[in-house]
Fold:
Amino acid sequence: MLTQPTLLLDKDKCLANIERMANKVKGSNTILRPHFKTHQSAEVGNWFRDFGVDCITVSSLKMAQYFATNGWTDITIAFPANILEWSAINELAAKINLNIVVESLESITFLEKNLSNVVGVYIKTDTGYGRTGINAEDYEAMQHLLNTLKTCQNLIFIGFLAHAGHTYQASSAEEINSIFQSSKQQLLALKTFLANDFPLIQLSYGDTPSCSVNSDFDGFDEIRPGNFVFYDYMQYKLGSCSINDIAVAMACPVVAKHEDRNEVVIHGGAVHLSKDALTIDDTTIYGHVVAMDGNKWQADQSLGEVVKLSQEHGIIKATANQISKINIGDMVGILPIHSCLTANVMKGYTTCDGQSISMMY
Amino acid sequence: MLTQPTLLLDKDKCLANIERMANKVKGSNTILRPHFKTHQSAEVGNWFRDFGVDCITVSSLKMAQYFATNGWTDITIAFPANILEWSAINELAAKINLNIVVESLESITFLEKNLSNVVGVYIKTDTGYGRTGINAEDYEAMQHLLNTLKTCQNLIFIGFLAHAGHTYQASSAEEINSIFQSSKQQLLALKTFLANDFPLIQLSYGDTPSCSVNSDFDGFDEIRPGNFVFYDYMQYKLGSCSINDIAVAMACPVVAKHEDRNEVVIHGGAVHLSKDALTIDDTTIYGHVVAMDGNKWQADQSLGEVVKLSQEHGIIKATANQISKINIGDMVGILPIHSCLTANVMKGYTTCDGQSISMMY
Structure:
């Protein structure tokens, strides 16, 4: 019986999410190199193997080390390389096929000088998100890096890696698709421009919204979605998934009710859900509340929204009718806004049949 | 040498923070029952013993169990009791002096029926924050609970416990003080009103801003500040501390620079800092960036603000002059907005002289 805040993982939904994404590239020239930062779990990682996945993406060297220890031999760290970790990068590159990402001459020069083992290198390419990378249309800057990269012995240039994170600001599937198409055009144009000097350039593209609303990845050598393994309420609102595809929920005990202000207090705060939020019609929410039935949640039985979070407290706003269905001592389910961060604060899962699943911490 | 995101703890600053708060109640009738949810560490907890602290506050049963295992024998769980955990509450109450908090007849009735060991009970009292508790001026609701509480055998009524969390919305030390005075008046009036029936009522009051800007706690039996052990950038901006009192900082590697948009990219994201934010003059920030000198940070050497966070990326906005002082491969220090949540995501500390300090996870 659940008695305290617990991150539930519905394995069936999770397997269905993996299968759906794996099927999208089946028989095509594009491979699925899923991002494992969402689940950060060797066990969940293993579930991907049955769907033909043997190359993965991670977001830190530490995560690469963890998955390498757990049998993964082809890993891309999709984060601008941290040159302070050159020695550990070098060590890991001796054991597995390791790819890193660069976006500056300083990093390229430093790593080429210090590494003694071969690593694959992508140039981080910005197709409009504006977070990291070289602008995909800034051919001069690209060539500047490539001029040095092509002289390197230990850094082997593979191609361009982009993450169109601006799909998360989209307001419809059409808008997500338009960002996807624009990113694709930019990357293909860049590849064409460089085709004489670099005939083998690969294009690596990621983000769950794009990869969820599209099925045709022709032109990309690989896709790197991550969040789709669990999805979450944000992805549901973006149109990436149905509410029933969300494969994780926080089960939280109800500790108090304040009917006079339409509020319910749960043991479920920032340390359980993370403080990632979503603003819908001027209301900021930290989770969508649904009814529980034993160890399973009922995604379509809404009981309100989490509207305030302290360290351990969550405040649910609900209608009088919803509140009448909630008692002190009940567990309610919270569909997280951002499952990656919820998993990260919880550092472990419980499947709906009670099995514990550990993470890298 | 620091090579990856590391939560640094300056032990000297931390000890000075503990000493300053302990000195405020020294020789008075008020005791310091510090909230340990901020550090969640047995080792940091032990530092309090030298300053005469032997009673503590926690925010969950799990945290109470952890500190009880580490030698603490007088613990208040300052969170509306989760009745689903009655069995573990009962077990812990057999071993230590355990106090819990209630705010409903349902919880009182359920716990009295199920517990077989004695626990101290506070009624959670709302002095204006509006998160949990019974309104301090709603004497009818208070008496309703007290009528049942006084018949209980295992729940021993101690008094009223309040947390004036609305001090965090204050814009000056004067405003914090005015909330403190108003809370105090409400609690003293309530105590006076009930003095005939309950002559031994105790008043427990907490929140770091109130306890930092005040020194006179006459009328309160105990104070329960927590965050003061580390403080953070939010407390500094509230006026609770000086910037040099902040005892923790995230050291983060610089991985990229984008001078054209005055940005620097660090390995330091939501999984390192948490997503708690502060809005100053319409700009939302996730941390205040300062220079590092070896394993120490220089609190007065500003290098900008963290203005965007992804899972692992942090984006610093800085002036051209500040950016000119930052190189790829440097470490920068980030004073966290909310040190409780930063500590919670990091799950451990490194002191400035390189010692690892574990937390309850």
Remarks:
- Chain A touches chain B through 55 residues (CB under 8 Å).
- The domain at 243-358 of chain A is CATH 2.40.37.20 (Lyase, Ornithine Decarboxylase; Chain A, domain 1).
- The first helix of chain A runs from residue 11 to 25.
